[in-house]
Amino acid sequence: MSHSGQIESASSCISESLILLSEVGDITPAVYREFLRNCPDALPVTRELSQIVLGRMLGEILYAFEQRPLNPGIVDSYLYEEAITHAPFGVTLTMYRCLIAALLTVIAHELGTRWPDYEVEWHCHAEAMLRVIKDAIAPI
Fold it and tell me: Which residues touch 106 (CB under 8 Å, ≥6 apart)?
């Protein structure tokens, strides 16, 4: 498969899984429950945020996952800047890791037996995105 074919495949894989996920409904509450269960240190940071803001943040993360196969440089630059701007509010690399892990856990649960078809792409992009975030906040 050519490089462009691999990119299209990764993009369609994530997009297809997001379409399936949309049939489930809003996963925001489940993701944040899982996140806070595994990262209680994030409670003070998230406590001040409205459900609308939490939903918007999760939407941006999902959008980044969807767009990264097609535009990795643009998405990575966006994530880098977001990580830098969130660091002064106490957002740590561990929190990002926990949030992305919570997202993947909920997606896996909701997709059930279909998850293995999408798992590799989601994890590949999660790892790449976390490397960018780590680079952004490492010096802080």
Answer: 27, 30, 31, 34
The reported pLDDT for the residue numbered 50 is: 87
- Please name the amino acid found at residue 118: Y
- Measuring CA to CA, which residue among 105, 78, 86 is closest to residue 42? 86
- Picking from 115, 107, 96, 100, the residue whose alpha carbon sits closest to that of residue 45 is 96
Closest-CA residue to 99 (of 76, 70, 56, 130) = 130
Average pLDDT on 136-140 reads: 75
Six token digits for residue 107: 């997606």
Residue 64: closest CA among 11, 7, 134:
11
Q: Is 0.85 surpassed by the pTM of this model?
A: yes
3-state helix, strand, coil in the chain (%, to 5): 85, 0, 15
Closest by CA to 96, choosing from 139, 131, 49, 56, is 131
Chain segment 9-32, per-residue pLDDT in tens: 556 889 999 999 999 999 999 999
Gyration radius (Cα) of the chain, Å: 15
What is the rounded average pLDDT of the residues 95-109? 97
